Amino acid sequence: MGIRREIIYLMTFGMELAACCQGKGQPQTLESGLPITVWVENWAEVSPMVLTRAQNVAAKIFGQAGVDVKWQTVSAPASSPLPGAGATFVLRVMPSRDAVSPEPALGFRWQRGIDDVRAVVFFDRVEQFAEQSSGSTAAILGCAMAHELGHILLGSSHSRQGVMRAQWNKQDAWAASHGNLHFTQEQEKLIRAELDRRLSSRR
């Protein structure tokens, strides 16, 4: 093989190797995510910066489960299409004083009918928990949003680990603040199966 031909061969091989190794060593999400839309009712008047950061955290958690989240802020109570129907959900961020929910819950799944299910998160309790645990308010808010949206798809059960734990402690706050609070692998499978069922029923 001539020197010039050998150089071309090595350059081609190097480019192919670089293409194959691109992105190695980093967490990978599924390439084709199942789409969902979340209508956000910002009743707690969370700042746009904090809310955007929280949405990014929640979207990353769902992204690792193979779900692509599209956020849409609404000023009035969302009523159409029905929340919880298909792959459109409603998430309300509000003060805890405006709802009856025992301490120290950061939110709850509010079901008003078969196809009317909403996720509710209490921003004042998120702020309090973040301060007590020296965690990030935006990150904890995002994890709380993912937790309550998870309940819509997974039901009312909790897990011993991950973002669906019933009660969070300082270790969970640290994990949330560092992007290490996720759904379990089994929960990710159940979420994809439920979303696939909902999307298939609307085709």
Descriptive account of the structure:
With 203 residues, the chain is an alpha/beta fold. It has one domain: Collagenase (Catalytic Domain) (3-Layer(aba) Sandwich), CATH 3.40.390.10. The protein contains 6 helices and 5 strands. The protein has helices at 3-21, 48-63, 123-133, 137-154, 170-177, 185-201, and strands at residues 34-42, 67-74, 88-94, 107-113, 116-122. A 5-stranded mixed β-sheet has the order 2-1-3-5-4. Strand 4 and strand 5 form a beta hairpin. Helix 3 crosses helix 4 (137-154) and helix 3 crosses helix 5. The longest helix has 19 residues, at 3-21. The radius of gyration is 21 Å and the shape is globular.
Number of beta strands = 5
Q: Radius of gyration, rounded?
A: 21 Å
Total helix count? 6
Domain count: 1
Query: In the CATH scheme, what's the topology name?
Result: Collagenase (Catalytic Domain)
Main β-sheet, spatial strand arrangement: 2-1-3-5-4
CA distance, first residue to last residue:
58 Å
Give the overall form: globular
Summarize the helices and strands and which ones pair or pack.
Blueprint lengths: L2 H19 L12 E9 L5 H16 L3 E8 L13 E7 L12 E7 L2 E7 H11 L3 H18 L15 H8 L7 H17 L2
List keywords for this structure.
5 strands, alpha/beta, globular, 44% helix, Collagenase (Catalytic Domain), 203 residues, 19% strand
Task: Give a short synopsis of this structure.
This protein has six helices and five strands, in the order H-E-H-E-E-E-E-H-H-H-H. It has 203 residues and is an alpha/beta fold.
